[in-house]
Specification:
- The chain has helices at residues 48-60, 123-137, and strands at 5-13, 20-24, 35-36, 39-41, 63-66, 72-77, 82-94, 104-108.
- By secondary structure, the chain is of the alpha+beta class.
- The protein has a single domain (5-131), classed as Nucleoside Triphosphate Pyrophosphohydrolase.
- Strands 1, 4, 5, 6 and 7 form a 5-stranded mixed sheet that branches. A 3-stranded antiparallel sheet has the order 3-2-8, with no helix packed on it.
- The longest helix is centred in the last third of the chain and has 15 residues, at 123-137.
- It starts with a strand and ends with a helix.
- The chain binds 8-OXO-2'-deoxyguanosine-5'-triphosphate.
- Residues 6, 8, 10, 29-31, 36-41, 83, 85, 119, 121-122 line the site of 8-OXO-2'-deoxyguanosine-5'-triphosphate.
């Protein structure tokens, strides 16, 4: 049986107060009204980093500086497709993010991320961010 596979890149954008940028998918998007890290599908011929910079410009109308390394890779089976979600940390480089496609955005400290209703594929990323913060407080 073949399944639909999609490769999606997402930015974990951190600000100087160590808050993380979270975005709410709109009612008309797939996986409606779930929170996500902004990004989108990698197009043919693109690498994850190039795709993510493009998606952020399109979706949030700002520029980000990406970390050199991938933060986390998640593979998750949704009922109708399998997602390979690549999360990369980022900082704002130029402009402030505007919600051009999302219905809400919020900056949250890692400890509060779990209060949102996340797309299921994002939960391991949320967990890794919380572990990172709590580890650094020990
Ligand atoms: N951008 C983003 N997408 C995510 C995350 N987690 C997650 O499961 N997804 C899913 C939602 C979508 O099905 C897919 C991303 O595709 P997309 O953002 O281009 O949105 P879409 O499917 O509505 O676009 P399209 O098919 O209409 O072109 O990945 C995440 O953190 N960020």
């Amino acid at each position: 049986m073949s399944r639909n596979h999609v490769h999606v890149v997402a930015a974990v954008i951190e600000n100087e107060a160590n808050e993380i940028f979270c975005a709410l998918r709109s009612a008309t998007m797939k996986l409606p009204k779930l929170w996500e890290f902004p990004g989108g599908k990698v197009e043919v011929g693109e690498d994850a980093f190039t795709a993510l910079k493009r998606e952020i410009k399109e979706e949030l109308s700002c520029e980000v500086e990406l970390a050199d390394e991938i933060f986390q890779e998640v593979i998750y089976d949704y009922p109708t497709f399998t997602i390979n979600l690549t999360a990369i940390k980022a900082k704002l480089k130029h402009g402030m993010p505007s919600a051009l496609e999302h219905s809400a955005v919020i900056w949250l400290k890692p400890d509060y991320l779990e209060t949102l209703n996340w797309a299921p594929a994002d939960l391991p990323i949320v967990e890794a961010l919380q572990k990172e913060t709590n580890g650094s407080q020990l």
